[in-house]
Amino acid sequence: MTSFAIYPFSFGNLRIGVADGLIVSIQKTNATEPGECTPLTERANAQLTEYLAGKRQKFDLPYRFHGTAFQEEVWHALEQIPYGTTRTCQEIATSIHRPKAVRAVGSAIGKNPLLIVVPCHRVLGANGRLTGYAGGLAMKKDLLKIEANS
């Protein structure tokens, strides 16, 4: 059974979902009900707060993906993007040995269930421009700025 807690941040609220002692989702939400805070959601909130303050570059949280094999392959590739750097969808597609699957890679990135922790915000368009982000382009720009200034 999945439980969740909602935490406020400067860019809006994040809903942190937990199942079987693992984080299964971190998503931006307009909801405001607090949900059920647990030691794990509190730990995630603390690490996200540190990251947003420029004091954390890596997350130490237990989590689990739930997607297709292809999506999970893409999400694991996102985990490999170093803090403060960016990649393009083409580079991600090439890194998973599917250079022609750029559109499918972009679609999988858009379905990343773990915002910030699995850094899909580090993926730019082919021309280096900001492209879609589940949290909105302003949030993506802010996250990249935090990393550039740390």
Output the keywords.
5 helices; 3-stranded antiparallel β-sheet; two-stranded parallel ribbon; alpha+beta; 150 residues
Kindly describe this structure.
The chain contains five helices and five strands, in the order βββααβααβα. It has 150 residues and is α+β, with helices and mostly antiparallel strands. The strands form two sheets. A three-stranded antiparallel β-sheet has the order 1-2-3, with helices on one face. The radius of gyration is 15 Å and the shape is globular. The N and C termini lie far apart (38 Å).
Characterize the biggest β-sheet: 3 strands, antiparallel
Specify Rg, calculated over alpha carbons.
15 Å
Mean pLDDT metric = 95
Instruction: Order the strands across the largest sheet as they lie in space.
Output: 1-2-3
Low-confidence sequence ranges = none
What's the structural blueprint in terms of helices and strands?
Blueprint: E1 2-9, E2 12-19, E3 22-29, H1 39-52, H2 69-79, E4 87-88, H3 89-95, H4 102-110, E5 123-124, H5 137-149
Parallel strand pairs: 4-5
Antiparallel strand pairs: 1-2, 2-3
Helix pairs in contact: 3-4
In summary, what is this structure?
This protein has helices spanning about 40-50, 70-80, 90-95, 100-110, 135-150, and strands spanning about 1-10, 10-20, 20-30, 85-90, 125.
